[in-house]
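User: Before I run my own analysis I want an independent prediction to cross-check against. Here's the chain; please return only the structure tokens and, at the end, one sentence I can use as a sanity check.
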Amino acid sequence: MVLLEFSMAPLEKGASVGEYVARSLKIIDESGLDYRLHAMGTIIEGEIEEVLAVLKRCLEAMAADCERITCTAKLDYRRGHSGRLKTKVASVEDKLGRSLKKVD
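Assistant: Structure tokens:
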């Protein structure tokens, strides 16, 4: 299982690109994979093939009418572990002994 955090936006569409981000979130939501949207990107969890396929579909959807797109992506692989969208945060909270602000 991997966590894929990414942010993707067109470069030539101005300062507000929420319409384009929404396209990606529709694809991500329809994928059935667990995900979290946050202010600077999205994290999705699944098998490597699944998350990379979603990333590719997001790029293709944006490229339909965008000439230039920027994308940053980060992968975190851990064999035999799933549900890490929640457990990684819970582990830090446990070490601090209190809850923290989070996307949920």
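Sanity check: The first helix runs from residue 18 to 31.
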